[in-house]
Amino acid sequence: VQLVESGGGLVQPGGSLRLSCAASGHTFSRNTMAWFRQGPGKEREFVAALRGNGNIYATSVKGRFTVSRDNAKNTVYLQMNSLKPEDTAIYYCAATGRNLILSTVRLMGEYEFWGQGTQVTVSS
């Protein structure tokens, strides 16, 4: 299984970016996939997840970020709008062969597969 992120870059505050995560080696259409991020000097944190029972977002990104999936392409997207400097981080795609329950979806240890990360920098 391989997860490959793309779409990161430098954007001004208030701008938008769309990250992509292309999966190969397994079809995750019925499984949980998620985005995490790690800012400079910070721990890796949960951002958003796609579940069969609905999508979940971290409080810090709710209303600004949208996660979606294209099953035909086996690809997950993270649309990021109204970006802030504090959104600067390396963004990682994660996947599991299960459909996680609500109480575990934010836990990094629940995901078996990870991408290499893509850098997002929000700065003027």
Order of helices and strands: EEEEEEEEEEE
| Residues in β-strands, percent | over 45%
Number of contiguous helices? 0
Helix content: under 10%
In oligomeric terms, what are we looking at?
single chain
Shape verdict: globular
Largest sheet: 7 strands, mixed
- First-last Cα distance: 37 Å
Q: Return Rg in Å.
A: 13 Å
Describe the structure.
The chain has 124 residues and is mostly beta strands. 0% of the residues lie in helices and 45% in strands. The protein has strands spanning 2-6, 9-11, 17-24, 33-38, 45-50, 56-57, 65-70, 75-80, 89-95, 113-114, 118-122. The protein is globular, with a radius of gyration of 13 Å.
Keywords for this structure?
124 residues, mainly beta, four-stranded antiparallel β-sheet, 11 strands
Summarize the structure.
The chain is mainly beta and about 120 residues long. The protein has strands at about 1-5, 10, 15-25, 35-40, 45-50, 55, 65-70, 75-80, 90-95, 115, 120. The chain starts with a strand and ends with a strand.
Tell me the layout of helices and strands.
Elements (H helix, E strand, L loop, with lengths): L1 E5 L2 E3 L5 E8 L8 E6 L6 E6 L5 E2 L7 E6 L4 E6 L8 E7 L17 E2 L3 E5 L2
Parallel strand pairs: 2-11
Antiparallel strand pairs: 1-3, 3-8, 4-5, 4-9, 5-6, 7-8, 9-10, 9-11
